[in-house]
Amino acid sequence: MGAAGAFAFTALPTASATPSASAVIAEVYGGGGNSGATLTRDFVELGNAGSAAYDLSGYSVQYLPGTPSSGSTWQVTALTGAIAPGARYLVGEGTGSGGTTALPTTDATGSIAMSATSGTIALVSGTTALTCKTAADCAADPSIVDLAGYGTAVVREGSGPATGASNTAAVARADSLADTDDNAADFTAGTPSPVNSAGQTPGSGDGGGGDGGSPTDPGTVRVHDIQGTTRLSPYAGQTVTRVPGIVTGVRSSGSLGYWIQDPMPDTDPRTSEAVFVYTGSAKPAVAVGDSVLVTGKVSEYYPSSTSQSNTEIGGPTTTVLSSGNALPDAVTLDATSVPDAYIPTASGGSIESLALQPTVYAQDFYESLEGMRVTFADARVVGASDAYGELWVTVKPDENATARGGTLYSSYDQPNTGRIEVMSLDTTSTFPAANVGDELSGVTTGPLDYSTYGGYNVQATQLGTVVDKGLKQEVTRRQKKDELAVATYNVENLDALDTQEKFDRLAEGVAVNLNSPDIVALEEIQDDNGATNDGTVTAEGTLKRFTDAVRAAGGPAYKWRYISPTNNQDGGEPGGNIRQVFLFNPKRVSFTDHPGGDATTATSVVKTRKGVELTYSPGRIDPANAAWEDSRKPLVGEFTFQGEQVFVIANHFISKGGDQPIHGRYQPPARSSETQRAAQAAEVNTFVKSLLAADKNAKAVVLGDLNDYEFSQTVTTLTADKVLKPLITTLPAAERYTYVYDGNSQTLDHILTSPAVTSYNYDVVHINAEFADQASDHDPQIVRIDLSKCRRH
């Protein structure tokens, strides 16, 4: 079936029942990369039997399984360019793990995994997927220019499909490209013989510009050509052949593959000389130091929807020329080589198409080294080792150093550029445990990679030695007799099914490191069976185990107050029902109970003859408000200490999940979660204002995991009209952090006080975030308030 007559560049053909005299499907092969195959990928070859060039703009080739089911759909590969008179046009499709010979340079590239034995290929004047699934329906579709069914295909032209297709055989028209609209008559099975628009065949030309040399000669495309001068390869979607390089690292677990680096670099500092070769499920059959030629398809792999990409060569055929070769010199990462500016911006859009500026931006510098060997020496650890075998160092020792050896994250505009993540390619050795402030001594060297978690990282083939610098857990002083001590601690999804070790370590943090505060606001207390999603919402068992452990560690016999959430309405781990809880030492402080508060009832401030009080204590702040949707609701409690009334508001604002990463391709990154946190902050601010309107001398402590920084809009909104003071800002800048993420020491947890709280002593107690061995991922903090000295105004 086809168009009548020759085709000019500007017109589109009208399908008819008459044979095509111009563009036709010339050859179909679905056995590429299969067992016994020589070629590594499937292909469809088009031909032009006419006397004028045939424009393929807006066209596609489409594939349907031979016996389509109700759920089968046509798969589409878009075409560009044109077929010259008498010439061929090669469309590369799915790549298998077998075969030894690549196609010549393809004119269009898809990824359809065609069947070797049965299927239908259509040449279509359009790129919308066809819907016909019978021969009759497809014959009536005017967008189909030509159609080839093979094997047992239901959709075909004429008396029957072409026969004989297999892993080693294609079906092809005669050289004349004669089209009688009968697949069985027009196609004959034979050895696959792909030809591209340049007339190249396997061995006479190669994907990506091969020079037609021997199988041991490099092709004409080098790694720096593949990497290009932006974050995206100009060869993405194309097959490249016999790309030379030295193997510099092999990854034999996780995402399998190896890195090659060209020992003959160009003079452009923007173009990386290395690339990752992705081997899929096959362990790489190469070793560091091998000189190789690699043939495969170039792609951009995105670890996540908002991350930058890794340029890769996939489905590789590798020829090892020699072994034991010297490796290319590694590029040194240090304060001199890494720029101080972090990353370019694009008004929130993608920066991928921007030309790299490696002397201006640190992230451009790292991208210009993607896959290349890099090295650094004697670097300070700024992010402790984790369970995944990763740690963070800084190659800029003077960049925003904290008092205990970390790197402070102090603004959105100036992220720390010297941080780099370190992993090891050695799967036989245990990854070392390192704390913040330790030194990764000696030389660390390896290919520079990129991942969703953290961005650029060194895949170490040589890992330095961790030198312990003796970081210790802090212990805060005990409160004086006339000081009310109030603390906050995120205990990371604690539930009654956790190990006794976890309870004991968290309890020691309260009893010893925090020195038994009078009031402790706990975040992330789960229900009694944790993530078991059976409707349980109470936390009595969890709290009994925890308070028993505190007492065993030398702390007081704490009592507790909380409000159980409605099942699965407060976010967190499904089934876990996390909530805030007040612990208090009844020998030092009393809790004022005003019964009636529950998950859906709001507490408020009222004036009475005895003074200001809450309608419900414990109570929640406006729990039906949209600001708290799928999030923890603030817990408010009324306490009395030495005759003085104190209101405590425990918070756990919504997390940063869903925000774009600071190292991602969208710049500046969108912080979408901040919108809800700002709304939550506004609600707490409004509640505190209502309290101060009733009593301007009310003493309030607002505390908890706010999931945002001291310089964020969240904190600005929370403190609006100076109703609250963030105590983190009273510390020296180098001490303002409660959490370490991606090597950035940052503040997520806060204590804020109302204006009447004027005499206080505040401390962040570093016991978790900087350590490889953590009881929680957050550090607790404490304020000691001398209520007798707090001024009245």
What does this 3D model show about the protein?
The chain has 793 residues and is mostly beta strands. The chain has eight helices and 41 strands. It is elongated and about 105 Å long. Residues 1-18 and 205-212 have low confidence and may be disordered.
DSSP E strands, number: 41
What is the average per-residue confidence, as pLDDT, rounded to a whole number? 93
The structural class is mainly beta
Helix content: under 10%
Shape: elongated
Q: What does the radius of gyration come to?
A: 33 Å
Runs in which pLDDT lies below 50 for 5 or more consecutive residues are 1-18, 205-212
- Terminal Cα span: 92 Å
Major sheet size, sense and barrel closure: 7 strands, mixed
Strand content: 25-35%
Q: How many distinct helices?
A: 8
In short:
By secondary structure, the protein is mostly beta strands.
